[in-house]
Amino acid sequence: xxxxxxxxxxxxxxxxxxxxxxxxxxxxxxxxxxxxxxxxxxxxxxxxxxxxxxxxxxxxxxxxxxxxxxxxxxxxxxxxxxxxxxxxxxxxxxxxxxxxxxxxxxxxxxxxxxxxxxxxxxxxxxxxxxx
Length: 131
Prior knowledge:
Blueprint: H1 2-26, H2 28-33, H3 42-61, H4 66-89, H5 99-117
Helix pairs in contact: 1-3, 3-4, 4-5
C-alpha cells in the first residue's frame, strides 16, 4: 500500500513540475515579477528554470532516472527559493495572491524538498532487512 501511495505521489509531483515548467513560458511576466533584482538575466532564468522543471518532472517519472531527478528537484527548489522570498517581500507585485499565502509558500518549500527527497534512493536498490 505504501509503495502504491509513493508511486502515485511521484506521478503527482512529476506532472506538477511539468505543468509548472510549461507555465514559465505561458506566463513569463508573472515569473519575471518574482525575480530578485540582484540576479542578472531575468527572462533567461525564468526560461531555464521552466525547462529544468519540465525535464526534472519527466525524469522523475522514468523509473531509471527518478533518483537523480529527485536530487535535481531538491537543487532546483533551493535555487528558486530567493524568488519565492522576493514574492513575499514584494506582495504589491502579486495583488491577486493573499499576502499570507506568499509567506506560507516559504516553509512549503521544505515540504516539497522532503517530498522530492523521498525519491532519492535508487529505484533499483532493494531494501534489505537484517534480523
